[in-house]
Write a structure and sequence with these properties.
With about 350 residues, this protein is of the alpha/beta class. It has 18 helices and eleven strands. The protein binds zinc ion.
Length: about 350
């Protein structure tokens, strides 16, 4: 056993013993939002998923690694069409390259869901003069990509906004990034234009404001949400009362899909210095990678299923980003369990994904 992962296991938990203590979930869990990469990391992930009762994953995997991930995960995995974000020629990868990749994902990997990643910081990653043609969610290239995906029978997943903490800090310049609310204007135009179904990642990008999400869900019946982004979801859902969360999940039953946003890569398994490619910030050995991945399922299952009221085991640097006088980078928010009923858990963990994805999961 190597040393524990300090950022993913602040509490010194034995995540194998904790999985046994939590027991089997009320129904096998479908993780509707995850990024599994790396042959070896996939093996570590598969052990974690099996321990925590996750039976299916809908994964945004790098195309170059999809064969390896499929070898390891087998029938557990469903693949999402994504652009080649890491390409040296990002502009091509996000435009014509993505059109070609959508076809490949569909033909070779049976993808029935495509991703439109539209985080405000894409403006920094794609600073070229052509950015206005593919960065805004309703820009010409995005429209072409959505049209192609829909013609192939794909649903559309969107990342539209980031945490309020980011709009208070790194996105404070609204003339560059827009306000948080303005992110939703191109989204609504696309929701009117394409039938979907749509899945808005990270509780629609606004877990801080269930009222805003209710309004969006009421006005757009094609919209569904996933609950992925563990640190963000744990921090913000914990702040809502149990009654508020139960009311929301009951009212939109079948439209809120469980997700983790776990990211796996073989770089997590390598000692940082030897690999020379990775800082080792998240994990730098198989055991640290195990704790990194397990911490997400531990935190999410504890949030949704239990009455736990205590520190999250996962360091959340957003606390220090907003209030550096009060918090350090390894501090964590309070996790307040919502002890959902078995009926609500069954829909969140499985029923909603089965309703939206249908026989793709069979
Ligand atoms: Zn993600």
């Amino acid at each position: 056993m190597s040393e524990r992962n300090p950022d993913a296991n602040r509490l010194g938990l034995d995540y194998r013993a904790e999985a046994a203590r939590l027991g089997k979930p009320v129904v096998p869990i479908i993780d509707a939002h995850i990024h599994v990469n790396g042959r070896e990391a996939s093996k570590v992930f598969k052990e974690v998923a099996t321990l925590y009762g996750v039976s299916r994953v809908v994964t945004q995997t790098r195309l170059a690694e999809a064969h390896a991930v499929r070898d390891v995960l087998g029938s557990m995995a469903r693949f999402v069409a994504i652009p080649d974000y890491g390409s040296a020629d990002r502009e091509t990868a996000m435009t014509s390259g993505y059109l070609a990749d959508i076809e490949t994902w569909h033909a070779e990997f049976g993808a029935r869901l495509m991703k439109l990643w539209c985080a405000p910081r894409l403006r920094d990653l794609a600073p070229g003069p052509g950015a206005s043609e593919f960065v805004p969610l309703d820009s010409p290239w995005r429209v072409k990509q959505a049209a192609l995906g829909q013609s192939l029978g794909m649903m559309i997943k969107v990342h539209i906004a980031d945490p309020d903490t980011w709009f208070q800090t790194k996105y404070a310049d609204a003339t560059r990034y827009g306000t948080k609310r303005s992110q939703y204007e191109p989204l609504e135009r696309m929701l009117d234009r394409f039938a979907g179904p749509w899945i808005l990642a990270h509780m629609g990008g606004w877990p801080e404001d269930l009222g805003f999400l209710s309004d969006l869900l009421d006005r757009h019946p094609s919209v569904n949400l996933d609950t992925s982004a563990t640190k963000w979801i744990v921090r913000e859902v914990s702040k809502h009362s149990r009654a508020e969360v139960v009311d929301f999940l009951t009212r939109y039953s079948g439209r809120i899909l469980f997700g983790s946003d776990i990211v796996t890569t073989d770089e997590h398994l390598m000692a940082a210095k030897k690999a020379g490619v990775y800082s080792g910030e998240l994990a730098s050995s198989p055991e640290q990678a195990f704790e990194l991945y397990a911490s997400r399922y531990w935190a999410l299952r504890t949030l949704w299923e239990t009455v736990y009221d205590g520190p999250s085991p996962i360091a959340d640097p957003d606390l220090a980003m907003v209030d550096p006088a009060r918090f350090g980078p390894t501090d964590a928010p309070t996790l307040r369990g919502k002890s959902l009923t078995p009926d609500l858990l069954r829909v969140l963990y499985s029923g909603a994904a089965r309703r939206v994805f249908g026989n793709w999961l069979d």
